[in-house]
Amino acid sequence: MVLRRVCGLVAAVLTLGALVTARPAWAGPPTEQLRAQMDRVIKVLEDPELKRDGRQAERRAAIRRLANDIFDFPESSRRSLGPHWNARTPAEREQFVKLYADLLERSYIDKIEMYSGERIQFVGETIERNHATVRTRLVTKAGTETPVDYRMHRVGDRWLTYDVNIEGVSMVANYRAQFNKIIQASGYASLVSKLTEKQEQGIEADRDGSIRKASQTK
Fold first, then answer.
1. Residue 58 belongs to a domain with what CATH number?
2. Does 92 have pLDDT greater than 90?
3. What's this model's pTM, rounded to 2 decimal places?
């Protein structure tokens, strides 16, 4: 339940580019890049052409591309798998990154259109060499505030997010605990099987959704 809430809040936060507060004077490259990424997500969500019937797959593909610009999936995968990462072959690592990215992207896309009316406040930024934390608050219409920290690192000239910490709960730590529990109980192959099953269920759900949408327009 905690992980589902984290994914939902991450989606909410990343859809609110149009509702962020004014640019703070202290804002540095990590904050500015995160803000720009949010703005791009909003443009896709508000694109009237992509809201048309029959264009859901295209819209989701656009959101996936943006998610790849926001998150460093290989780094997040490595941290989420923890000590089990070192035991994986290059092929296994590549497979895991793809499954992990698909898991996050589907959670992101499924939740992204469920939120409205919240505001983002950028409240601070710390940079230590190639790592940064951008601190924000998610403020609901009722005035409830939720602290959200983005853990980022520099890759070339870009700052990419590898973890999101919401109310002290780390997305990476949550996944690491779940993945470790499965591996300890039934092995790494079992984890891959479960992630593959989730991926197949997601693909099937997307296909069913497209079919229903098409039938409604006839």
1. 3.10.450.710
2. yes
3. 0.80
